[in-house]
Amino acid sequence: MTAAPAPASARPLRRALRAPAADRGNALPAGAWWLWALGLATAASRTTNPLVLGLLVGVAGYVVAARRTDAPWARSYGAFVKLGLFVVALRLVFSVFLGSSIPGSHTVFVLPELPLPDWAQGVRIGGRVTAEQLVFSLYDGMKLATLLICVGAANALANPARLLKSLPGALYEAGVAVVVAMTFAPNMVADVVRLRTARRLRGRPTGGVRAVAQIGLPVLEGALERSVAVAASMDARGYGRTARVPAAVRHTTNVLTLGGLLGVCAGTYGLLAAQGAVYGLPLLLAGLVAAMAGLRLGGRRSVRTRYRPDRWGVRAWLVAGSGAAVAAAMIRAGAVDPAAMRPGVVPLTAPVLPLWPAAAVLIGLLPALVAPLPPSDRAADRPVRRGKEQA
Amino acid sequence: MIRFERVSVRYEGTERPTLSGVDLTVPEGELVLLVGPSGVGKSTLLGTVSGLVPHFTGGLLSGRVTVGGRDTRTHKPRELADLVGTVGQDPLAHFVTDTVEDELAYGMESLGLAPDVMRRRVEETLDLLGLAELRDRPIATLSGGQRQRVAIGSVLTPHPKVLVLDEPTSALDPAAAEEVLAVLQRLVHDLGTTVLMAEHRLERVVQYADQVVLLPAPGAPPVMGPPAEVMRVSPVRPPVAELGLLAGWDPLPLSVRDARRGAGGLRERLADASPPEAASVPEPAAPPEASAMPGAPAPVVAARPRTGRFARLLGRGAVARAAPVADPVTRVDGLGVRRGRVEALRRVTLTVAPGETVALMGRNGAGKSTLLGALVGMIEPTAGSVRVGGLAPARTDPRAMVRRVGLVPQEPRDLLYADTVAAECAAADRDAGAAEGTCRALVSELLPGVGDDTHPRDLSEGQRLALALALVLTGRPPLLLLDEPTRGLDYAAKARLVGVLRGLAAEGHAIVLATHDVELAAELAHRVVILADGEVVADGPTGRVVVSSPAFAPQTAKILAPQEWLTVSQVRGALEAGA
């Protein structure tokens, strides 16, 4: 492939830098993806510049396209993008009909205004719609949409069930319950589809409210039966086995957890109330420490071990770090150059792309280079391309 | 290894115990097969071993079950998890995680094994069950045989001494079933695992069993013994044993190989006779159109086409309307169906004449169910055409289609919505526009002795199938489709089904059944169509297609080859005629 042979020392380096094919052993921890996505989301919350926001969406979208698998949860990205567009549209509609506090001089059009009684002062329905208020709502909506898309990216790249598996031992059983509940919904949807098509076999129309009402009960029954079957299977496979723990440890656990939670409550109250800030913070901290110790001790009751937990390697640090770097750069940019990050609405100005923050956003593309490459089933659908790669 | 001491189980609200007087000992390292007609408490007996009965299901267990010295009364299922591995009837309901590797590790995680031990055992199990290729795959994407193997693997990793399996091969095609049985064989031989399993498809498993436990009737005490002896007295028998009894072989053969050794004499006796040409399609001289059937409504000529405004603009709706001539023959021409990127069916061409029974065979996922779905109109063809009674099923109003074609789905429960059998029947009469009581009469015929107030959920698998069949037949459809009708049926229920379907075919119904059950196909079908990867790879008279295939040949054909006998009843008929 390379016409000019690279120096002998550079070749192993280049090989090491190329992302490996993803498998169980080098899978990135779900936490790394979430940190990356939250970094991008933090960055998005710091700006209303549509160009920067667009860049962030582009970065998230590119990484998702490059690194997502064919697993069912990976398909949720499209839904989040649609949700984001919906948020933008909703924000604009509200702005048009309910007016806005943004003063503006460029009237776009005038809607008939609904006269409201005196007590509803400050609320307006209809009336003048200005370019300024539209632009402001558009920026605002885009910010929200970008946040949503970042969350969607994390959801598509990291299996949510694996994130739950990194819970502490004491909370493990609750975590499994959540995972099982999460598989419940897709199964139920599949049941609805199957029963709706089965209605056709009885010669009944498959659409309409009555169809849904009639299959509701069988679907619920089926879902219930399935849950009972899964529970039986889990029980028979040792779910909920506990180790014998001395009574003293058990009591200490209870005291620590309960006392800790009480401390957290009291401390929070102290912090929020007008007086008592003096003891609020120490109480909160002490409560947190006690609760953590209680959880840790509670983990002793569980005999569970973990099979091949995800490892935080260099690649995981790079992925998480790239997100953090984008967030840090944006926060800094907000302090240094606020005008560029929040382009003026009154008077209307065209947003400009601030150069170095934009370059910083591109750091977020790092996962598309370093994260292990998932095997693509899509390649199997394109024999031509596969053939080319072989050649 | 497993001891049952005077065990009986009674569930709440039943007048007699489901199991009673079970006194058994299952020795270590044996493969023990549990047989008996439906509803004798096989699943309950299996449940008592893992402790799920009575800890999970409720009910009252008297007597004592001990597994490896542990009493199930004092040990909950989770405390037996390291000793007993259980796989239920539906592997999908067994899975807790979403990928193969996690699923294999799940049981060990719960038991708290050390990480390096878990890692090693997962790798060993992947190899033992031939799952290494699938290790990262989401479970939802696996085929039936693969799922069953993963389910077995997931209970094997904690190295249980006892494996309990409830119908492990019933839902599988013959090849996948052999895969699973080979694995079990290996476990028993190499690891010394004790295996206790229940299975209806005796022709597949009986030859592997060391001992057979027969539950002859509900509440009756079990009989345990070597397979050949138990098969002599058992009410359920595979064809090979049936043929052995008929020919008076001793010892009774259990595998095709044993039977072939002793079959020389029988082959000679049968040399003069030729297999009956039962497989010929009845003359199409009397085409039983919908109108010709008693109690059937006149054919719907102006079927309301379910076409959108655009289609009507393009004139498609008019086409459907302009084809009122009821063609009694079902025609599928160049049918293609795509699901996303997957081509489920490709260029399938098939005709089914009235009175003809066609068996669709092929491995899981070959497109059998899709073809049935296209025939009934649940699936719209992406290419080619389907004509049932001259209409395109996917574009015709379901209410009109119900009088032309009926499908009994793989899960007959999907068809049942009502609380009682009577309500179900009334609804079916209304749906099909049939005279009141039509359906009830059919139910009484197919399912004698089932009360009006019975809840469909309380019926056994076979009874539920019969009820669904009655509901579908209420519309007197000239074309009847059945998807995997013998899953979970015992031999008696199967024989009843065969009788009913033969009668329907004689009345002029065209029947298409998708099945893995080669014995059923041999018994019923005039023609066999084999699908592979969505294409028709064989289509011809049952005798010709089935006898030449190693996977799809029924046991009788394998034993008596090269003579072309398909079923024991054919042989019996020939012997009686000759005698």
Automatic annotation (TrEMBL), chain A:
Membrane topology qualifier: Multi-pass membrane protein
InterPro entries: ABC/ECF_trnsptr_transmembrane (IPR003339)
Major subcellular site: membrane
Top-rank taxon, per record: Bacteria
GO CC terms, sorted: plasma membrane
Keywords: Membrane, Transmembrane, Transmembrane helix
Ranges annotated as spanning the membrane: 33-65, 77-98, 170-193, 254-272, 278-295, 316-335, 355-373
Signal peptide: none
Locations listed in the record: Membrane
Protein name, as recorded: Integral membrane protein
Gene source species: Streptomyces griseus subsp. griseus (strain JCM 4626 / CBS 651.72 / NBRC 13350 / KCC S-0626 / ISP 5235)
From TrEMBL, chain B:
Alphabetical keyword list: ATP-binding, Cell membrane, Membrane, Nucleotide-binding, Repeat, Translocase, Transport
GO molecular function: ATP binding; ATP hydrolysis activity; ATPase-coupled transmembrane transporter activity
Entry's localization field: Cell membrane
Keyword Membrane: yes
Any GO CC annotation of this UniProt entry: ATP-binding cassette (ABC) transporter complex
Domain called ABC transporter: residue spans: 2-243, 330-558
Membrane protein topology class: Peripheral membrane protein
SMART domains for the chain: AAA (SM00382)
Biased segments, Low complexity type: 272-296
Chain residue ranges for the region called Disordered: 268-296
Coiled-coil stretches noted in the UniProt entry, renumbered to this chain: none
Family indicated by similarity: Belongs to the ABC transporter superfamily.
Function comment: Probably part of an ABC transporter complex. Responsible for energy coupling to the transport system.
Name of this protein: ABC transporter ATP-binding protein
